Amino acid sequence: MKVEVKLFTVLQKYAPGGIRGQTTVECPGGETIGQLLNRLSIPQTIPLVILVNGVQKGRDDVLQDGDRLDVFPPIAGG
What we know:
This protein is mainly β.
């Protein structure tokens, strides 16, 4: 299955092939968000905001064909 992945800010360096911004990743059926993030070598110690199709999800949620995964570090401001 194919999942569209967009990594933001400091996470862009983990994009497959060093591609910045948005890319499509081939995933096995039943893969969780956490498994995909591990394959991309994103450290589990980095706090993340994870959206799938615009809805906040967690590392244990299972991806579906055609999903759009947006991952970025928490944003603080004031």
